[in-house]
Every structure is written in C-alpha cells, then in structure tokens.
Amino acid sequence: MRLAGSDMEAGSDTEAKAAVGTGPGAVPDIDSTPSVDLTAESAAAGDAPIPPSIQVSRSALPVALTQLIAYLLLVVLVLATSLLLGRVANISQLLGQTASVVMILLFVVYWPMGGKISERVVGPVVGYAGLFLEIVLAKANRSSGAEGWYIGWAQAFVVLLVVAIIAAFLQQMLRKDRSGLVLSLSRTLMAAVACICATGWSLLGSLVVPWPVVMVTNGPVGRIMIISLAVGILVELLLLLASCRWWRQAEDSVVQTPWSWLGMGLLPVMLAGVLPPAAGLLPTLLV
C-alpha cells in the first residue's frame, strides 16, 4: 500500500507541473526549456564568441585554383614555347627563369605564414641567388652538355640550403625576444626551401626533347621514367591537398591578410620545382 501511495503522489506532482506550464500566465518549467546549440555560424554573425572547439570553415577553392592556373601557365609558356621554338635563343629557359622570379616575388609579397617581416628575408635572398649560382655552375659544367644545367642546379641547391640553415639560425640568435623560436625558425626555413626549389622551374623547357625520346626508345629505362612521371604528378596532387588543409588550419590573422591565399597556393608549386631538375638527371642516372 505504501508503494501505491508513492506512485499516486508522483503522478499528482507531474499533473501539477503540467497544469502550471499550460495555464494562463503560466511560468515555463526550467527543466523543459530547450537548450541553445551554439554554432560557428551564429558566433561568426556576432551573436556570441566562438568557443575554442569550434572553427569557422574556410573555402580552399582559391588556393586550389591558384595552383592549377600556375601549372597551366608553366606548361603553356615553357613547354609549348620549347616545343615550338626549340632552343632558339633559349627562350623557354628565359621564360622559366622569369616564372621562378615572379613566383618568389608573389610568395613574399602575399606571405601566407604570418609572423614577422624579418622571416621573409632569407627565402627570396637564397632563391634569387640560386638562379645566379645555377647559371654560373652550369657554365662551369658546360662539358657535360645539357646535363650541366641539372648538375649546376643540384650543386646550387645543396650550397644554398646550407647557407639558408645557417642564416635562419643566425637570424634567431640576433632576436632580443626569442619567444616562439621554433615556429619562427620553421617559417624561415620553409620559405627558404620553397624559394630554392622554385628555381627548378627554369629547367622545365629542357625536358621537352630528351624525355619523350628516352621513354619511347629505351625499354626498361623508358618504363621507369613513365613511372617517375606518374609519381611526380601524384606528388603535386598531394601537395595540392596538403595546401588546402594548411589553409583551413591557418591562423585568423593569416587568412585575413589580403591575397594571402595566393601565397598559400604558390607554396606547393614552388616546392614542386624540384621535379624538373630531378627529371633531367634521371636519364643520366639510369642509362
């Protein structure tokens, strides 16, 4: 009987709460108030601050389009010119060098990695020095023929990479405030490596003649080169996907910088500049 009485009391309490919540001038039950789900959209509209666990989604379409357009321009301007004009006045090589200079300049101007102005200095310095050193070493290796350009680029890459590492560490040691040292050092080295690799696009036009010939005439070597070409395309696609992810995870201060998406889109293209010299050296290593 005691249990039955308890059930009756619980039922009467429930009915009483329902009556209070439905009658005229009723006071809403606190327990029944619907919870407000804070979303990134409402927070971004100014309704409330964005919690740390919520990130506003960013479109990576401009970054991807920048890379696709850059690759298209490189193919049209450099490869097509080399195919149509051959080595007339080395026009294709001059266009490749011009493309490298423009990419480095745009990357530094529309810097996509935040930080301080001083972190942008090492990259373009070693990048432009790489173009000059590549020409000097290529002339020194003139006895090697066309391979002298690839060998000269590889030698310049190693020398300037060592110089960039030393310069980056010296730059950090000269700072009075060394907070965020690892992050600043990584930005400087990333920019330096990208600018050095970008100079490799100057050799793109020289691949028009040797690569198709070797792939068609040399059986095993040709097959290896076809596989290498596929691997190179895969690397560029992976860099494209990685850059889109970097952009979505970038700091707000970086994203809000005008045209910073252009610098982020050029970064993978510059890193992929190591592929043309590597492709030029591959037949020499295989034959």
Please describe the structure with a list of short key phrases separated by commas or semicolons:
287 residues; 12 helices; 70% helix; globular
- Count of helices? 12
The class by helix and strand makeup works out as: mainly alpha
The span between the termini is: 99 Å
Low-confidence stretches at least 5 residues in length (pLDDT < 50)? 1-56
Shape: globular
Q: Helix content range of the residues, please?
A: 55-70%
* The number of domains: 1
Transmembrane segments: 68-88, 94-114, 121-138, 150-170, 182-204, 224-247, 259-279
Region (Disordered): 1-31
Keywords: Membrane, Transmembrane, Transmembrane helix
Detailed description of the structure:
The protein is an all-alpha fold. The protein has one domain. The chain is built from 12 helices and no strands. It has helices at 2-22, 40-44, 61-85, 91-109, 122-140, 147-173, 181-198, 210-217, 219-248, 252-255, 260-271, 275-286. The radius of gyration is 30 Å and the shape is globular. The N and C termini lie far apart (99 Å). The model is unreliable at 1-56 (pLDDT under 50). The chain crosses the membrane at residues 68-88, 94-114, 121-138, 150-170, 182-204, 224-247, 259-279.
Question: What order do the helices and strands come in, and which of them pair?
Answer:
Elements: H1 2-22, H2 40-44, H3 61-85, H4 91-109, H5 122-140, H6 147-173, H7 181-198, H8 210-217, H9 219-248, H10 252-255, H11 260-271, H12 275-286
Helix pairs in contact: 3-4, 3-9, 3-11, 4-5, 4-11, 5-6, 5-7, 6-7, 6-12, 7-11, 8-9, 9-11, 9-12
